[in-house]
Specification:
The protein is of the alpha/beta class. It has nine helices and twelve strands. It starts with a helix and ends in a 6-residue tail after the last helix.
Length: 261
């Protein structure tokens, strides 16, 4: 493929962006059948600022994400949690989502995961991951020191499961995504154990060979964060601000992390 990554994108007149189907609040189909979400909004802005007419969204799976980026089937994917395994196949931007590890659990078990002290009383837990990431497993074992932790991979290729698989105590994901999922399935809650939540930032991944695009994305994110575009998108899609409401709306910061009034 001749030319730089940005030249190829402009020649195509479209930005190809990977997404995970049903990944609320980042990329999901609304009641009108339209793909929407924080990633969709930001990708549209990025395409416009690259000078191309459209965004081509390509559905991906977590276990093939790195390969899709490295092979050039997509130009990038937005809001990917930092995991070292992807560094072999893709390049991360500076983070634009300051996420946290969330434990999606049956609602009646939310108190078991509310604090690290409560968690350690369980002595043994089985955690579901959407793809096998050894470095994430290592971080979780360190975070949950004193607990016997097992990991299993939960198939999310057809979207988020309505029920946790038998024997799985919690499903691990970004709290921002888990909180949105729990709104659709109120039998579940997403918990961020206190008093020391485990941070899990997310950024844009691009192909390692696409240095010009990666540099553009980093600079673009810097401008979007400074101008408030990223925070407004986060407030709207993740925190639920901006819609018309007659009562105080649910938010991740207040109702999951317990911050603010």
């Amino acid at each position: 493929m001749a030319g730089s990554a940005i030249e190829r994108i402009r020649a195509r007149n479209a930005l190809r962006v990977g997404y995970i189907p049903g990944r609320l609040p980042f990329s999901f189909v609304n009641a009108q059948g339209t793909l929407v979400g924080m990633d969709v909004e930001l990708a549209g802005r990025l395409a416009r600022d690259l000078g191309v007419a459209s965004v081509e969204f390509v559905a991906l799976r977590w276990d093939t994400l790195g390969l899709a980026v490295s092979e050039g089937r997509v130009d990038m994917m937005m809001s990917v949690p930092y995991v070292a395994e992807l560094l072999l196949e893709a390049r991360f931007s500076t983070p634009h989502v300051d996420g946290h590890v969330g434990f999606v659990v049956r609602d009646e078990r939310r108190h078991d995961f509310a604090t690290l002290e409560h968690l350690r009383k369980l002595r043994r837990v089985t955690l579901g991951l959407m793809v096998e990431f050894p470095t994430l497993e290592t971080r979780l074992r360190e975070y949950l020191s004193g607990i016997d932790v097992d990991f299993v991979v939960v198939d999310t290729s057809q979207g988020m499961p309505r029920e946790l698989p038998a024997g799985v105590d919690a499903l691990i994901m970004l709290a921002e995504a888990g909180a949105a999922w729990s709104l659709l399935h109120p039998q579940y809650s997403v918990v961020v154990p206190q008093p020391e939540p485990l941070r899990w930032p997310a950024g844009v991944v691009t192909r390692k060979a696409s240095a010009d695009l990666a540099e553009f994305v980093d600079d673009w994110l810097l401008v979007q964060k400074a101008s408030g575009v990223v925070s407004r998108a986060y407030d709207y899609w993740v925190l639920g601000k901006g819609g018309q409401a007659t009562r105080k709306r649910w938010t991740i910061l207040r109702d999951v992390l317990g911050w603010g009034g």
